[in-house]
Amino acid sequence: MTTIRPLSETIGAEAIGYDLRTPLSPDQVEELNKALLDNLILVIRDQDLTAVQFRDGMAQFGEPMLQHREAFRLPECPDVSRIVNREKMRPAAMWHTDHTNHELPPKATILYARKLPSQGGDTCFANMYAGYQALSDEERAKLEGMVTINSMEKDNPTYSAQDRAEYDGGVRHPLIRTHPETGKKAVYFHLTKAQGIEGMPNEAVRPFLEDLLAKVVQPQWTYRHHWTLGDVVICDNRCALHRADPNYDQAQERLLWRVILRGDRPH
Ligand SMILES: [Fe+2]
Fold it and tell me: Considering 3, 8, 18, 144, which has the largest number of Cβ atoms within 10 A of its Cβ?
């Protein structure tokens, strides 16, 4: 028996009774995909997966792409990367969508909990269709033509010289994008990677984006995921922002595995 049910009225659903160790039926792939498109975040509960099973399970929803920190890729399955509060990696506490320094940023990020602190360590998600809808007509008109310029953060010690040589960025994306599957508009940016906006002085960019975040991220359309071991959480990066809540004991290890699925060029 499988069930899919919403986790809130505006964002998030959970899927129960699925087993990603074996291939899903075409109908199951379709229903999970639809649940993701409708709810932006999909939590697939109770999974017990090796890295290869995790990658293969997610490959039913798209093409896994290599992530830009080579040192954090799993040797046994490089399509899977570690997200951990160790080895100088800090919780990504600012709102963002992933890998915007890539020309073809991932359509989805999938996280799988491996080690959790005894309390906290949540991941928060915000619905950017709702964020867009919350803006006034004037604000939307102003934002429509804006283009962010995305690069790796200069002060992030987890990027090696090799990573930077391959993926440093300078990549341009629209601040408002149209979702290629739903046709709906969403606010789209990574707070710390969007280091420039075309036509705006660099020092004005961060305050401008922080102001925008205050408008487009509201509790009514935000979902806070309290992790349970075995959760696989899929985020549609084209219409949702996310952040890690660093509010936990950093002496305790928090380890997630991550797969990202290739997307198209935002437009
Ligand atoms: Fe992220």
Answer: 18
